[in-house]
């Protein structure tokens, strides 16, 4: 396996990512979309998730494909970013056909960043507009670190952010991950510089420090997050042709990558969640082997994307946590 040309989730052909954020709000959102509907699924392992339209992603539900997936800051208010994306899609004639109407299918998930020092005294929810901006910004290139849904994110020690990574499998299938890291746990062994995800790093993509030569002491001065303040939300994607059940299995396997990269993860205070997306550009040649490899690659991509999110975070006035590269 090797990373794709850009080492982003958009190495999966046909996918586009758009982002928008507000420096005064200290928050933002990130949208994954495509020119055609794609198969999607979800798996939740955190104890405090915040979601929209995730029930319809179960394999036994009527709608099997979606038009976009949204990751957003703003806690429950951030779910309104999905409405902005849905209206953007509807204006382009996209959506599930019901008679002469089109209903865009836009599941989403949120993280909590309401106590990060930004101005949250709005009179009108700002996330609808951020969702529309992110949708209209969608393309194959996008920023990592302090951007989009990760703009105001934090972890147990370091400033959080948005991350992405990709892999091309020997079969020719491509897998990518996109993640907003706002975790209760830490992404480094104690206070760094060694990332927990180091064994899966390619080409010094997050500093090249390698695994820690010393066992973890767990003595880093971790700021305490209160109940509901944490969450890591992610999307893993592939160009493979998958059923919704197979996509759900890929999302489930990808959680292994989250556990490798964040310690601890999947806590009762995190809303840890992984969406899966499959564009159906390439048929599976050997379903048993290919689905096994897709899950393994998704976990590797997600672990790397988490580390890259923190590695690329940039400092801003008023930060409550240090940036990894400013240590």
Set down the secondary structure blueprint.
Blueprint: E1 15-22, E2 27-44, E3 51-52, E4 65-72, H1 80-91, E5 96-98, E6 101-103, E7 108-110, H2 127-136, E8 161-168, E9 174-182, E10 231-240, H3 244-261, E11 273-282, H4 287-311
**Beta strand count:** 11
CATH fold naming:
L-amino peptidase D-ALA esterase/amidase
Q: Sum up the overall morphology in one term.
A: globular
Helix-strand makeup class: alpha+beta
The H-and-E topology, N to C, reads as: EEEEHEEEHEEEHEH
Poorly predicted sequence stretches spanning 5 or more consecutive residues: none
Number of helical segments?
4
Q: Terminal Cα separation, in Å?
A: 32 Å
CATH hierarchy class name: Alpha Beta
CATH superfamily: L-amino peptidase D-ALA esterase/amidase
Rounded radius of gyration (Å): 18 Å
Q: Mean pLDDT, rounded to whole units?
A: 92
Query: Into which percent range does the helicity of residues fall?
Result: 10-25%
> What is the CATH architecture assignment?
4-Layer Sandwich
